[in-house]
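Sample entry (94 residues):
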Amino acid sequence: MIDRARFLETYPEFASAPVAIVDRALEEAADLTDPEVFGPRVDTAHGLRAADLLASGVFSVDARMVDAKGASITTYRAQLDRLIGVAAIGLRVF
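Predicted structure, serialized as tokens:
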């Protein structure tokens, strides 16, 4: 999992967010990100999930968009969904 410094280096748009809120998003994202599912992409998934949590709040309204079903999602969630699809293919047993 990534730490706050690496997260803010990767997602500098959240640099103005209070440290406590960034840390809480990273903690919550860690709880929701299974290293066994994402393997070597776990850091990317963790960062995207934390960014999605922050963007779903007040810190990044510009990162929100509407999906094909009319639901509001963030650009980070869209990237995370693609990564989840890649991870799911790797989990298939043939």
